[in-house]
């Protein structure tokens, strides 16, 4: 049995126990304390835990067992693709020649790494329908920022920098979109969705003008719905002199089917750590490459990876560039995984990704739509959004149902986003789950809906089976206890 409350490693400590002993050093030592300024020396020994190897292993295994990840169970977190990532890509990213290179190594000694980056850029150009790609940005949000700085530099180069201040963003957008626009100094204009959950073309037409800098959009949008008016939308923005930015964080609904380039977008970012085989959610590292059409290429960040004959190099000689957006390419391992993933899948494999992601989402939606309010009942792409309005009236909120799901061994879907759906539950099964898993999840959701109707208090007091029950999340965020007080 797993202990419910795993003690701190300090509480397991017994003086003199050792998990590992270093051999006697045969190198003459000097006394560090004599070398350092006296105010830097500690006055008493550090209170490090003293435990045996077995205690140490059990401690960390117990902590690891409390973690929920894809290797534990289903993870239907909409708008943040969390799919199974083939372990072979992890192995390849750990190859010595990839893992042990140094950022300041001369380019001629890192040709293989540069070749991989160059070829990955080429694949991503094809996948996005763009003319040039940079691998500099280390996350989706940083990719958005990079792209909007490029838009800004373009408008400035045209003498429009002072007038084109408005960034149009639909009300269903991911929160990073308005945050990015704000941090780049744009004024945000929210574009309302219509009753079908897609952008209102009339509202867009009313919003554009000589002050339009651009539109940030994802397609399919965060409701999992494809903007079928996309060519009209891009025409309206372009006619007004604005640029179109595609949020491609979750691209598993379009791979090998359609590209942002074909939809007339001018720039796009991808999240390699969502769609292309790097697990995410642990805070990094990620990779948010940005692709642009030819006319924006001079503004890309430097250095750019180039190929001349058989020689690969890093070139910083782009006078109109927005500059560096990141120190080095320390997130290189993410690129390696994406490269290995794209090469092993091939265009047909990527097409299957899309078809399976869309099929799985629609299957789950149909299984659940009689039990929950479904504000947008049409066929969805890779994800769909339900509303817990009906259950809220019966006495249990979406938050309560999300907590109850934990008792069934599932991670909760994204909740309360997108903001335009009341009590929203945003579900993305991804392409990598079996029918059995989808059915088990659907059965749990249906049982929860039925329990809300008969015994809502079972749901409102959930979770019952987890090692930690309901926390005061606000208190935990505002006043986190991050130090251990000895003797308490
Ligand atoms: C995850 C996500 C982002 C942000 O990506 P990060 O790497 O977390 O910065 C942006 N847009 C959408 C739609 C996303 O799902």
UniProtKB/TrEMBL annotation:
Annotated keywords: Oxidoreductase, Pyridoxal phosphate
Domain of life: Bacteria
UniProt keyword Oxidoreductase, yes or no: yes
Domain named Glycine cleavage system P-protein N-terminal: residues: 34-297
EC number: 1.4.4.2
Family membership: Belongs to the GcvP family. C-terminal subunit subfamily.
Name the UniProt record assigns to this protein: Probable glycine dehydrogenase (decarboxylating) subunit 2
Organism: Fundicoccus culcitae
């Amino acid at each position: 049995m797993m202990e419910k409350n795993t003690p701190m490693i300090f509480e397991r400590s017994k003086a003199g126990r050792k998990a590992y002993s270093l051999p006697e050093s045969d190198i003459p030592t000097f006394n560090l304390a004599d070398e350092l300024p006296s105010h830097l020396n500690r006055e008493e020994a550090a209170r490090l835990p003293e435990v045996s190897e077995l205690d140490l292993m059990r401690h960390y295994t117990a902590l690891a067992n409390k973690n929920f990840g894809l290797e534990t169970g289903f993870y239907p977190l909409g708008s943040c693709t969390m799919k199974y990532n083939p372990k072979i890509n992890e192995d390849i990213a750990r190859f010595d020649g990839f893992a042990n290179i140094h950022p300041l190594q001369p380019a001629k000694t890192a040709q293989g790494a540069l070749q991989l980056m160059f070829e990955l850029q080429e694949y991503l150009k094809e996948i996005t329908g763009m003319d040039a790609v940079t691998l500099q940005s280390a996350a989706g949000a940083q990719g958005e920022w990079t792209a909007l700085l490029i838009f800004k530099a373009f408008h400035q180069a045209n003498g429009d920098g002072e007038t084109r201040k408005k960034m149009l963003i639909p009300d269903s957008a991911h929160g990073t979109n308005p945050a990015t626009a704000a941090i780049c100094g744009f004024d945000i204009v929210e574009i309302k969705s219509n009753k079908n959950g897609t952008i209102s073309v009339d509202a867009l037409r009313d919003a554009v003008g000589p002050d339009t800098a651009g539109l940030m959009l994802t397609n399919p949008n965060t409701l999992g719905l494809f903007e079928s008016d996309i060519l009209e939308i891009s025409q309206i923005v372009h006619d007004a002199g604005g640029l179109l930015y595609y949020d491609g964080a979750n691209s598993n609904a379009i791979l090998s089917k359609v590209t942002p380039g074909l939809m007339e977008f001018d720039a796009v970012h991808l999240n390699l750590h969502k769609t292309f085989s790097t697990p995410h959610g642990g805070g990094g590292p990620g990779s948010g490459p940005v692709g642009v059409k030819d006319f924006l290429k001079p503004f890309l960040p430097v250095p750019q990876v180039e190929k001349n004959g058989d020689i690969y190099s890093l070139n910083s000689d782009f006078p109109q560039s927005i500059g560096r957006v990141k120190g080095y390419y320390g997130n290189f391992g993410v690129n390696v995984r994406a490269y290995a993933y794209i090469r092993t899948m091939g265009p047909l494999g990527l097409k299957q990704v899309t078809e399976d992601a869309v099929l799985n989402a629609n299957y789950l939606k149909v299984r659940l739509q009689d039990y929950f309010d479904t504000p947008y009942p049409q066929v969805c792409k890779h994800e769909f959004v339900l509303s817990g309005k009906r259950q809220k009236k019966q006495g249990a909120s979406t938050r309560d149902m999300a907590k109850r799901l934990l008792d069934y061994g599932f991670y909760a879907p994204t909740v309360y986003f997108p903001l335009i759906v009341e009590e929203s539950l945003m579900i993305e099964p991804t392409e990598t789950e079996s029918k059995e898993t989808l059915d088990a999840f659907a059965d749990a959701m249906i049982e929860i809906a039925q329990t809300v109707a008969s015994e809502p208090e079972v749901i409102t007091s959930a979770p019952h089976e987890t090692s930690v029950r309901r926390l005061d999340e606000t208190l935990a965020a505002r006043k986190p206890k991050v130090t251990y007080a000895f003797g308490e």
